[in-house]
């Protein structure tokens, strides 16, 4: 086993399952086959995502704001509330991100012409160019990470992950234990 560890040829989740089987054979560790692998994959994905985004002087949180603005379509502007609704964070959290992006010249704040209480965040030309460049590189990075899978396997996994997400959400409605 130590030799397999040294070469990186070991399946870490399988090893964890074997160890639990030895220590607590009465427990059904089957959920680890899926969720531990998903967790380990997410951690590796997150590390690569963060490194890729940070190379461009952005945080992942700032990138989320830029991509939400870009997806909104021309004129690429949303209120802080709409950005929060896009699944980012609270309005206060979005405001911190907007402050940084504005300081970097990637967005500007604009008041609504008809209702001065409404403030939009809008991509600048520099912000639009930056998000277009970084997002294209992001997709290339994700494509490389999926390179060991066929297109059919990717579609199947996407369907299964969607089903998993629904299952996890439904479990919130069930009593624990």
* Structural shape: elongated
Low-confidence parts lasting 5 or more residues at pLDDT below 50? 1-7
Q: Give the overall pLDDT as a whole number.
A: 90
Strand content: 5-15%
Q: How far is it from the N-terminal to the C-terminal residue, by CA?
A: 35 Å
Estimated structural class: mainly alpha
* Strand elements, count: 3
Radius of gyration based on Cα positions: 21 Å
Q: Could you describe the largest sheet, including whether it forms a barrel? A: 3 strands, antiparallel
The run of helices and strands is HHHHEHHEEHH
How is the topology of this model organized?
Elements: H1 2-7, H2 12-23, H3 30-54, H4 60-71, E1 77-79, H5 80-85, H6 91-103, E2 107-111, E3 119-123, H7 125-145, H8 151-171
Antiparallel strand pairs: 1-3, 2-3
Helix pairs in contact: 3-7, 4-7
Describe this structure in words.
The chain has 8 helices and 3 strands; from the N terminus they run ααααβααββαα. By secondary structure, it is mainly alpha-helical. The protein has a 3-stranded antiparallel sheet with strand order 1-3-2. It starts with a helix and ends in a 6-residue tail after the last helix. The N terminus is likely disordered.
Features:
mainly alpha, disordered N terminus, 66% helix, 7% strand
Q: What can be said about this structure in brief?
A:
This protein has 177 residues and is mainly alpha-helical. The protein is 66% helix and 7% strand.
